[in-house]
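Reopening this one. Same input as before:
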Amino acid sequence: MSENASPLDPAVAQERCAALIDMVCRGGADSADAVVIGSESQSIEVRLGKLEGADRSESADLGLRVFCDGRSASIHSSDFSDAGLKELSERAIAMAKAAPLDPYAGLAEAQMLAQPPYPDCDLFDPVQVTPEKLREAALAAEDSARATAGVTNSEGGSAGYGSSMVALATSNGFAAAHRATSHSLSASVIAGEGAAMQRDYAYRVARHAEDLPDPLEIGQKAGQRAVARLDPQRVSSGPRPILFDPRIGHSLVAHLIGAMSAAAIARRSSFLLGKENDTLFPDDLRLLERPHRQRGLRSRPFDGEGLPTRDRALVQEGRITGWLTNCAAARQLGIAPTGHASRGAGGAPGISVSNCHLEAGGMSPAELMSDIEDGIYVTELSGQGVNGVTGDYSRGAAGFRIVKGELAGPVAEFTIAGNLLDMFARMSAANDLEYHRTINVPTLRVDGMTVAGE
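Same output, byte for byte:
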């Protein structure tokens, strides 16, 4: 590797992976895979119209996984030199030979690996980003938020840009890389005075700069949200219908996806254990995964073990469609890999999904709440009161009361509780689905939840 070569260059990264694979196989490994994960980013933060901070970073890590006689080891380094690769390969082989036997570890079968040409998901934006442009955007977003009547202070505005690269190679024939960019913009402000102050924010991230909203829109949304929360009231305890705003409703889907992980099933630590053939959702709700969505925040042409990624329904006709696996978990459960391996520079592959969305329903949010005499529209959740084994759900919340089918003022300092299985069975969706998050959902209604307030 030449001194001027950057490991963030996909061609350089692939060459380093190939060189490392060759070293460990000649050194006695049965098989191996190598990954390079690199990123660079810059961000500007402003507060009250002045520069608050500027950050620029660049990193690149090389990960190696080695298999020897049914044993395996993972190791990573930031030294991409020939000498560094040689040392890394020798240490990895020694570690693998000393590791315990693992009957489930190993590469994906060669015939399962993704083949070129790989899907082009349009994840890389070639636009030139300068600190001056980022500062202008951050200032515009904050100024717009501060101009909202009722806003009294600011926690700042920020704008950022980043690019990333992933290269993966395996000893049984896979070698590919892909790049992506991200642009972000946010504003966070405070409304009111003293003990009555309320804070809220607006944030957006996109693969391409042209897909970001105008900074004025981000600022206005942050300011309006903060002012709308002023003078919150308490609520009485009891059962109520709950509506989840899309910016927090996606967390319900995230809990489901975590429980669908084959690793959790193998550990018997999922509330979905034994429920794979049960009707869990209303028949008209579908959860879809779209790994090749153009400019998607989690789009990827192949997974962390080199398997192809494919569109699929995760929930259909009220049922989940199977577990989400990497190769090790698939072997442990005796099922086929599903292309959901995730990979960092260190450690064994994990399990993750790509872009997901819960399909929109037929009613507007106003229509979805029109028959609610007394309910709550939740815009914020706090705490971590979710039990992944039982599905029990209890989280602090804030939002707005629903009285006789309409929003009726802010409420805060209460808890909503239930069980995720019951919540899924009573879930209905509005028609306001938008695609700008990793997990996208419309406004969701869940009947029969328990509210703990006054």
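So the earlier flakiness isn't reproducible anymore. For the record, The longest strand covers residues 151-170.
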